[in-house]
Every structure is written in structure tokens, then in C-alpha cells.
Amino acid sequence: MTNAAQITRAYPRAAPVAKDVVALGRELGVDPAWIANVIQFESGWNPQAVNSKSGASGLIQFMPKTASGLGTSVSAIRTMNASQQWPYVRRYFLPYRGRLSSQVDVFMAVFYPKAIGKGENYRFSALVSKYNPGIFTSGDYVRKALRRARLLSPSSLSPSAKPSPVGRRGGGGLAQLRRKRERQMKILFGTGAALFTVAALVAIVARRRMG
């Protein structure tokens, strides 16, 4: 499990709430790094971050309706620092306790809760893709989000259940990309071994001719 010091080293702006991130991770039964990576992508740890198109605000980009359901408002959220916002972040996540088994699930809890537990190949509606260019599946979204992440582990790269191909044309998912790298390494080592064998045979033949 990632600790508060590791979170702060990766994301210095997380310092005021790093211990809270760890505590929430324990409550939810997930690696705190997964929560930290979501906040990094959503707001870069800027509690006053605002999406000019949707009005989403704060650390996890609360939508106006979501903020209202949590007993506050986006206008109030924008006046709060990270510590003041944290109770609302915690309150937002707690209903998903027991349902989050991967980094993908934690991202989806904020972006599109219907996709929780559906793995990398969950396909969004045309409307969602329209407002999020290039995002057709949950895997597309997570790959984009993880480009900004600084707390990665093998468990961050693929959901624990049902890893499957994703992409607009059915291209490989996160797990498939990892397998592709493994195949490339095997080919590389295999090629190296073959070249070594050929070189050795050539040397033997050369010695025999000289003899």
C-alpha cells in the first residue's frame, strides 16, 4: 500500500491531505495511489480547479448536481482549500466501498460510475465520446489519465478482473499491450541467442580451416 510520504513525493501539492488519501484508501480497500492518481488527473491537486465547459470544480471535479447531493455547491467548493474539501471527497467515494477493485474502477467512480466493475472494454455512449474526443471506452480514458500519473504499479495498469481488448477498432487493451511488450522481449532475447550461436559456428569453421 502506498503511504503518505510516497504520495507527497509524487505529488507535492497533495501534502495537506496525503494522510487523508491513505485513510480513505484503507476505508475503500484500495491502494491510496489509485485515489491520488485520479486527483492528479482531474485537478492536478488544485482545489480551485474549474472546468469552463461543465462547471465541474475542485479536487475531483464535482459536478453542480453532485455537489448539491453532497450538501454543498460548486461555488462553495471553489472557496475551499484541499483540507476543507476533503470531507466531500470522502463522502463522494464511500458509497462505492466494496465495488472498487482496480485503478480503472477508481477512475470510473469519478468519471462514469456505470462502468465500475466492467473492465477496460466498457464502451461509452456517443454523447460521452462527443464531449471527450478520442475516448470511446474506459480503457481509452484510463490510458489518457495514466499519462499524468506518477504512482504506477502493475496493479495500476490493468483491472484485476476481466482484462480485455479495447479501443475504437478493437485494438489491444492495457493487458494486451503488456503482453505485446513481453513478446517483443522474448523475440529480442531469442534473436540475440540465435546470433550468438551463428557467430560461434562461424568461429569454429574458421579455426578448422586455419588448422
Describe the structure.
With 211 residues, the chain is mainly α. It has a domain at 4-98: Lysozyme. It is 54% helix and 0% strand. The protein has helices at 4-10, 18-28, 32-43, 64-69, 74-77, 82-93, 103-111, 126-131, 138-146, 174-210.
Task: Kindly report how far apart the N and C termini lie.
Answer: 64 Å
Count of DSSP strands: 0
Q: What's the overall geometry?
A: globular
Fraction in beta strands = under 5%
Which residues form runs of ≥5 with pLDDT under 50? 159-173
Major sheet characteristics: none
Taken in chain order, the helices and strands follow as HHHHHHHHHH
Mean pLDDT: 83
Query: With helices defined by DSSP (H or I, 4 residues minimum), what is the helix count?
Result: 10
CATH fold topology of the domain at 4-98: Lysozyme
Structural class, judged by helices and strands?
A: mainly alpha
Radius of gyration: 23 Å
Q: Class of the domain at 4-98 in CATH?
A: Mainly Alpha
CATH architecture of the domain at 4-98: Orthogonal Bundle
Helix content: 40-55%
Please give the structural blueprint.
Layout: H1 4-10, H2 18-28, H3 32-43, H4 64-69, H5 74-77, H6 82-93, H7 103-111, H8 126-131, H9 138-146, H10 174-210
Helix pairs in contact: 1-2, 2-3, 3-7, 7-9
